[in-house]
Structures
1.
Amino acid sequence: MYKQFFENETKTALKQAYPDIQECNLRVEKPKNSDFGDFAINVSPLARELKTAPPAIAQNIEKYLSKDGYEVNLIGGFINFKLGRKMLAETIEEIIKQGQNFAKPKNIKPEKINLEYVSANPTGPFHIGHGRWAAMGSALANLLKFYGHDVYQEFYINDAGSQIQKLGNSLLIRLKQLKGENVDFPQDELERKNYYQGEYLIPVAEKFLKENEYTEDVKILSDYAKKEMERLQQELLNKFRVHFDKFYSELDLHTSGKVENSYKKLEESGKLYEKEGAIWFKSSEYGDDEDRVIKKADGSNTYLTADIAYHKDKFDRGFERLINIWGADHHGYVARVKASLEALGYNSEKLEILLGQLVNLVINGEQTRMGKRKNMITLDDLIEEVGVDATRFWMCMRDINNTLDFDIELAKKSTDENPVFYVQYAHARACSILRNTINDKINTETGEKIAAPLTEDEFNKTIENFKAESIIDDVENAKSLILKLEDFKSTIILSEQTRSVYTICRYLSELASEFHSYYTKNRVLVEDKNIMKGRLSIVYATKSILKQALDILAVTAPEKM
RNA sequence: GUGCCUGUAGCUCAGCCGGAUAGAGUGUUGACUUCCGAAGUCAAAGGUCAUGAGUUCGAAUCUCAUCAGGCACACCA
């Protein structure tokens, strides 16, 4: 990696220049002005320890730099590095030869990671917020896998609480309505809260009557509606290119005795006590604001109790690291789950909880709060309107810490304002060039056939036998493109460290921009076969990286648009 | 009231482990087509980095306070 290379070069030189130096946390960065160089190191942070002015330090270090393959340019306390053509050419060779392994970090410690996200209640269709967790979670999974981790994706189904009863009651009302009975949800505000009033239960009721005898048994109705919701949710996830290794049922957690078991373990830890008829957990001893109820006065478990068992089970299944994506509205929950894991003897630092800010729908330029409105726009609606690719890209585009404005009108336009098209277009354009090298062309005016510049065999050999030396004379034109291609390595590492995927979106936009720019300035299919083959290889390498990055987002890389 | 997130160009956002002239997209204005995809490229204009103080040789970046917006503060899930 270029950055690593220059950091090592500088550190080596630094030790020769100043043998007594203790710490040297020098960072390679991009110069503000590309005229200075391609990479830069600022030595100012060393000034204090060395008691020397930054420019003098830079001059001293410069003497010991090997300058093998690069040039050095000193400005003030900055050491600027300029890549030689050989290094640039070798990068193209590396991309072509390494393929998928080009940006895969070497010498890393792969972890067995459990990634949990979406985990919606099986009581209704996904809303747009779920779409954000689904897109980001699956992209993060792809990223972590790309990096080298062993990732297991999980969806926790909250199928055990009172909301299931509520679902059954709601279905019953819909059934009665279908039978022609004059019933509706209660008028009273408070009582209405015991029902799901969305119209999505109407088709479920219809389907139920087709398959079953009419019944008012809420248990049967609850189970039916729950299964149906799960089925619809999983269908949609599939369509959205989100694939879970396991849908973990909360109900199973209870019936298998795991909830009871983890309760006993907590009891053994001595961190439970009774108060006002309920059993409390001393979570405040582990940094939580207050203690939490574990068993209610009526003897039933709280949601937390099951969740504790669930997280315990994840560790017990051998995962070294747990990553959860939760909505920011659950942030108050973090401390108590971590507290419980500590009490049970697990290292709560191995549980990372990514809190995602919510999605604002923007309709006709106005922000609409994602509430539980009756006629809300579901994720399914959104995908129908905008398409899977644009929806996925858009949902991944912003830092998870920031609220995301999803402008329906803008995304629907599907034109220049939508960055995904810009990126996909770059890929399609690259494919088009590669196609044109081996396909005969027909002049539309004369009907005359123009032979392809290369046969398929020649093209394949050009790629297979690519040698860095072959493009050295022409590589300077592709410099900023190659720098960006190489930057894929840093992007992968940064994204893994920060658990973020918006960085991949940004990278793609930047790479596409560099490619479009290169394309405009450098014609690929030129007379000179050697130049053509070299540029073809650069296009091929670009296409390869675009594809790899798009694959992480699970956005398609079209050959044609 | 307490805790968490956010405040940077008209709009949407990067940059935030302190360092060179604060960047990108979009919008505005203007250029670029004998030729591989113009869904493209190039350029111009556009800034009190919410406000105030502090730390520092140096602050958009760190600290504190204030203001503004969002979210959460259940024996619900």
2.
Amino acid sequence: MLYSKLFPKALRQAPKDADSANAKYLIQGGFIHQEMAGVYSWLPLGLQVLRKVENIIREEINALGAQELLMPALQPKDNWLATDRWDGLDILFKLNSKIGGEIALGATAEEIITPLAKAYTGSYQDFPFALYQIQNKYRDELRAKAGVLRGREFGMKDLYSFHLDLGCLEKYYEKIAKTYLNIFKRCGLKAVRTRATGGAFSKFSDEFQVITSAGEDNIYYCSKCKVYYNNELVRAGKCPECKTKLGKPERAIEVGNIFKLKTKFSDAFNFKYIDKNGKEKPVLMGCYGIGTTRLVGTIVEANHDDHGIIWPNEIAPYKMHLIALFGKDKKINQKIKSAALAVVASEAKQSCEVLYDDREDASAGEKFAVADLLGIPERVVISEKTLAKNSIEIKNRKSGKVTMKKL
RNA sequence: CGGGCUGUAGCGCAGUUGGUAGCGCGCGUCGUUCGGGACGACGAGGCCGGCGGUUCAAGUCCGCCCAGCCCGACCA
């Protein structure tokens, strides 16, 4: 990709309203553009990052045998009435249709997937199975905040599993928990499994929290149980299970949450299977979410410095940020240009994605500042200086380490 | 949803006792620069968030509304 053609260019100044690191750098770098409170466009650079996150999730979830589908954001009111969430879920967006009636804008997808799964299954032989999608969700939050960390329209991977018995559900639940930790690790994050309230479904649910000062949740570690607990469970500074006195809380961002729904939704939609003996039994469900857009924001919160973003390798929009520094000697400039194009070509052969800052009118300082802001892991400079040594200069964004490499 | 703050050029901001709008960056042209956001000259760019009111006259005063940000509450 030629930087001269990239839409849009990085902003020189960060927007004033952006005070969280993710909003500041993602907007300034031209990754996202705010349209209204909690609603963002994902610009080409940002979409590259988002797609990488999504694809890591796809790889990991597909490996568990779940199948991807795509459900609508427009959802029938009746389904939400069936679960008492039409009036019960305060953040639900409700739309009026010109042909009459009301429609829910999907805040989540249990109301679609449960009747959908029911429509195509019946025998115990169909189970267990799992379906997921990566789709935008809509929640009418009273207060969107912190850039992409809490939006009203946001990306989410939502996975639903269907089981014959509790043991099978619990086994799958643990498999997902393990996979989640792996997903976050690949995203360059250290996430910790954290016990949280289970809502109406079970005693606990599990959250995946990334400890960072930008977090809006407080979590506590119980050194006796070796478990993190969400603030909402902790009463009077004591571990909710073993009652050990807990230390200071840590700020964390919730990037995933998994629930054993059990029969909460299958009951609402009368979703049953026929067992070996021809008897009807309720299907047990689990649901498992990862906020994809929030994950991108969290990665920025956890990986930046005063100059900009430091993308983890697997997430970076490009692997290499190539900078050509031109001087006034036209012959040398020509050499620099062809050397740069040769690097782009040879990297392409190894399917290494390069962002090439080919601008001839931008100063060295400007190009360096943009490179730091965009946070691509490897910065490569070709200039008169490096060509004199028949080399290129490679600087690691994270470590700052500079090395020379022969052309 | 309660409390606070803010809306003026693409971005960041100034605008005095009311007199019809300015700066920096960015953008365009030309020239000089060329390893950490270079410099000069000229130039383009405005529904001063919206509606209503007061006034000879409103970016400025008054009222209502809308939007954005922050704190809190909320977050199956």
3.
Amino acid sequence: MELLKGTLDVLILKTLSHRPLHGYGISRWLRETTREAFQVEEGALYPALRRLEKRGFLESRWEESETGRQAKFYRLTAAGKKELARSLRSWHDYVDVMARVLESPSG
Amino acid sequence: MELLKGTLDVLILKTLSHRPLHGYGISRWLRETTREAFQVEEGALYPALRRLEKRGFLESRWEESETGRQAKFYRLTAAGKKELARSLRSWHDYVDVMARVLESPSG
DNA sequence: TGACATACATAAGTGTTCGATGCATAGTGA
DNA sequence: TCACTATGCATCGAACACTTATGTATGTCA
């Protein structure tokens, strides 16, 4: 399933709200949680991570992964937590507005 | 509120499922139905209408509008109705998958 | 040694939406 | 009569985000 442009950020923020994680781990967790429905491409993921870090919502550190290799772990900042809350509200609002249109009685 | 890229088409199809309508009317109906939340810009709307017509989901005809002026009325084709049904399913599926992630228990 | 999973990253291409702008007609109110 | 607002079409450029493709490198296991 293709991602709707604009929804990747909140997915990442939510994923990181559980625990710090590296890019590959984020991708894998999302794939599993969505039962293969969302396959986040690296070309989308890494730019998104940099974008979010640049905006101050994430910070990163090289650490050792579960497999013993070096990996860049991202964690939510305080600003990131606020942004996650905002994004969740936005998403729900959006879904509500869409419903107003899509569930209007058809002619 | 900004539109998520990819959601405009289904909004247009749904709007036209009620009755044939011209661009300006689509824009106005959407604005009213969403209580000002979605303001579809002309620069997005007209290209989208042409796109949908080109794909065979809409057909257009110049007719007289309620105000007595000539306007291009778009109506759903049979293919457009099928596409609307498909799009509605897609949207609902998407919302469900998003929920799986966004409502996962936070750490 | 060769395949596969892990892990990073960038570049090119595509598609969609937004914002700005332009044209034209009609009605309303000062 | 002038200005403003609403109606209605349309195009163009910029911005943005995602996809596809590609490259690098390490570790593990058969």
